[in-house]
Amino acid sequence: MEILFAVIAILLGLCFGSFLNVLIVRIPLNKSVVLPASACMSCGMKLRFYHNIPLISYLFLMGKCGFCKAKISFLYPLIEAISGVFGLFIYLKFGFSLESLFIGISILLLLALSIIDLKVKEVPDSINFWALIFALIGGVMLHLDLLFVIASSFSLAGFFTLLRFAFQSLAKKEALGEGDIIIVATMGALLGWKLSLIAVFISALSALIILIFCRRDYQIPYIPFLYLGTLVCLFLDNFFMAFLNNYILQV
Questions:
Q1: 213 and 112 share a domain?
Q2: What is the DSSP string of 68-130?
Q3: Which of 109, 186, 214, 233 has the highest local Cβ count within 10 Å?
């Protein structure tokens, strides 16, 4: 039965990954994610149902359009594969449950936001708010404490909003965007405020390391690093909580 649940989790991840590709392509262009039906970006031909089978269609078509033979971006099967792996990991971490579904959807929506931020340096509110909503529902199911989840989410968002305005006043530069603040709220709902602070620290440290090797005028997309910190703390929560309780909170 566990193997069956694992397979179902992978398949759900793959299918949702296919939907993420639609979000990543259409949302920045302000297009509907429902209509029109998926079509080739090169020739405009509407794709058949067997052209949209996650991973399998890409392999069967050898990475080319079934009509005009134009090359299909490798990003599509990559997003689907990553989503399938996340589906498995979320099942292994939280079991086959409703909370896994909500947490998983939130995590995968954050993946879409990270890719969009990397590609066009935008943070679509439509995806961002849905990630927060699913995180709040999944967080309540996970922590079994509505007040803790709400307080963690909105107190972190409020704190980083004040931090943003303070930095802008002093440095006259944009530190965190409004989209980043919503991401932080999502992190708080999923992780709680303690682990969220560690996740923000991990994201800032990793971004700083990358920034060292970039040009001075390069604007680094920060959401992928927030996403990295969230994943690390979500799946290694016991390690970080033990570290906090044994070394930090005891001081």
A1: yes
A2: T-PBPPTHHHHHHHHHHHHHHHHHHHH-SSHHHHHHHHHHHHHHHHHHHHHHHS---HHHHHH
A3: 186
Report how far apart the first and last C-alpha atoms of the chain are (Å, whole number): 46
The 3-state secondary structure of 37-63 reads CCECCCCCCECCHHHCCCCHHHHHCCC
Task: Quote the domain boundaries for residue 41.
Answer: 1-96
Please tell me which residue, 91 or 204, carries the higher pLDDT value.
91
pLDDT, tens only, 166-206? 766 665 566 567 778 899 999 999 999 899 999 999 998 99
d(CA 202, CA 39): 40
Do 151 and 219 fall within a single domain? yes
Q: Are residues 90 and 103 in the same domain?
A: no
Contacts for 152 with CB less than 8 Å, ≥ 6 apart? 139, 188, 189, 191, 192, 193, 196
pTM for the predicted model, two decimal places: 0.90
Mean pLDDT of the chain: 86
Q: Choose between 189 and 251: higher pLDDT.
A: 189
- Tally the domains of the chain: 2
d(CA 250, CA 14): 43
Tokens standing for 182? 């919503």
Is 161 within 8 Å of 180 (Cβ atoms)? no
Amino acid type, 182: I
Asked if 82 and 104 sit in the same domain, the reply is no
Residues 133 and 214 in one domain: yes
Amino acid at 90: I
Instruction: Give the integer Cα–Cα distance in Å for 228 and 168.
Output: 25
pLDDT (0 to 100) of residue 251 = 45
